[in-house]
Amino acid sequence: MSRPEHIAPPEVFYNDTEANKYTSNSRIASIQAEMSLRALELLNLPADQSCFLLDIGCGSGLSGEVIEEEGHTWVGLDIAPSMLEIAQEREVEGDLFLHDIGQGVGFRPGVFDGAISISVLQWLCNADSSVQRPKARLNRFFSSLYSSLAKGARAVFQFYPENDDQLDLILTTATRCGFMGGLVIDYPNSKKARKYFLCLFAGQAAPGPAPQLPRGLDYEGVDGRESSVAYSHNRLKNHQRRPRGASRVPVKDRNWVLRKKEAARARGENVPKDSKHLEPSGYSTTYATKVSGSNQNALSNNDQAKLNADKVLRLKKAWDQSFAPAKSLPMTLFMMWMSGNSVQIFNLVITVMMFFQPVKALLGVQEAFKRFEAPESTESVTHTDINLVFPKVVFILMNLLQVALGLWKCSNMGLLPTTASDWLAFEVPPTPLEYSMM
Amino acid sequence: MRLLTHNMLQCHVKTCTDPALNFPLQLKDIELEQVETDRNDDLLLNLLQKVDWNALKATVVELGVVDFPQEIPENPQNDESFMQKFHEILMEVSPYDYN
């Protein structure tokens, strides 16, 4: 962006057209008002008090209007006549002076409660004629301003420094003239929104700690928007460091050991057990994997004992299974007695059920005892597995007993063809020994 | 320009440092004008400490205003007539260059 102070001196640059443009453009006006408000804020004037302020480079009175709105009285200085004319047309309240601030401000000492200046200071850093020396002009300006400010008053300059040398020149000159303070930069991370405010303190009103330089605005403080990503190492550090007092987590923990042992078992190595405790009977993973390995004969006493215990348990369960049909016998008998011997539908259903259940059980004897046999993987190795023949025989007998009961019931009801009258068709009529004729 | 501002001005010529000569500035070729403004007692009391009273008196005499109080009363905020007069002179009377 071209800098207007490079184009012409301010009183020439801000001619009628430029001055008109400056005032009629609503965007410029809003930016000027915003900056004036911020400058007033930085002035840190006592609350609820009308103050007498100096507006350096008041132009068309845009900043003056903001001062009026805040309830203060002001006096304005500017070098451009066209701008001042517009200010007069707009009937601003402050008194206006056509004045070159490079020649100092002509006011009595200590009259102003504060001074603001919007977009002016950079103009002072240029020599517009051969006789002008920027440094001397700045010096004159700052020293006369310092004296005209009340003790403890502030002067806030919004300006656009061209480079670091210019900043340095302004700051050192102001400091040499007695001012304290420094630079406040609003939105320093945004190239567009960045604003420089030179915040100067003319001494101290009351003895005490030196006034604190205000903090520049940033997006974090305004509306929560982050202008840049916050960068920190903390997260990484926290991740690596365990909290104070927490026990050390070993790299080679239990899972690691188990994984290694599993891998060794897969290679067929002799690996100690994972647990010192006996595994519950019926839980077969350990010995199943062991006996299926190459070291079948290396079963320890412990394993042998467990195998035996398992066998005893299975045999016991098998006998339970074989006597299970007998348990329903009393109930069956009771129902037989209750229902009587007459041929009715209720009687018949009970009788059919009495046959149906034992017959079904008899057909599935092998199936019923399958779960008591040794697991398939061990069948080949355990030569002396439990003998299920006797339980099976008892099971069959019990079921047959039920069938017998059913038959007895049937005979009681007279459904069994046990009398001669049931077989009349096959009855051979007796051959008469002799025939008598009449 | 209000008399307030006139009272604050001094000659800013570098070599003009004699307090008897550089203040107050002389008013020449002027006409008086009355600009109505709202009275702000708070501001007036603030300005009362800053205004050079003797210079203001001299200026007022020079302009031909007669009924101006010679001294600041002890409690100016309670003195309604003084505050009104002070306001009129300081904030409303505006000399301007008739050229």
UniProtKB/TrEMBL annotation, chain A:
It comes from Dispira parvispora. The keyword S-adenosyl-L-methionine applies. CDD domains: AdoMet_MTases. Its main location: cytoplasm. Belongs to the EMC4 family. It comes from the Eukaryota. Residues 263-279 have a biased composition (Basic and acidic residues). Residues 263-282 are annotated as: Disordered. PANTHER family: 18S RRNA (GUANINE-N(7))-METHYLTRANSFERASE-RELATED (PTHR12734:SF0), METHYLTRANSFERASE-RELATED (PTHR12734). This is ER membrane protein complex subunit 4. It is a multi-pass membrane protein. Keywords: Cytoplasm, Endoplasmic reticulum, Membrane, Methyltransferase, Nucleus, S-adenosyl-L-methionine, Transferase, Transmembrane, Transmembrane helix. Gene3D superfamilies: Vaccinia Virus protein VP39 (3.40.50.150). One of its GO terms (biological process) is rRNA (guanine-N7)-methylation. The keyword S-adenosyl-L-methionine applies. GO terms for molecular function: rRNA (guanine) methyltransferase activity. Residues 200-276 form the 18S rRNA (guanine(1575)-N(7))-methyltransferase Bud23 C-terminal domain. Residues 54-129 form the Methyltransferase type domain. It is found in: Cytoplasm; Endoplasmic reticulum membrane; Nucleus. The chain crosses the membrane at residues 333-356, 389-408. One of its GO terms (cellular component) is endoplasmic reticulum membrane.
From TrEMBL, chain B:
InterPro entries: Trm112. Gene3D superfamilies: 2.20.25.10. One of its GO terms (biological process) is tRNA methylation. One of its GO terms (molecular function) is protein heterodimerization activity. This is Multifunctional methyltransferase subunit TRM112-like protein.
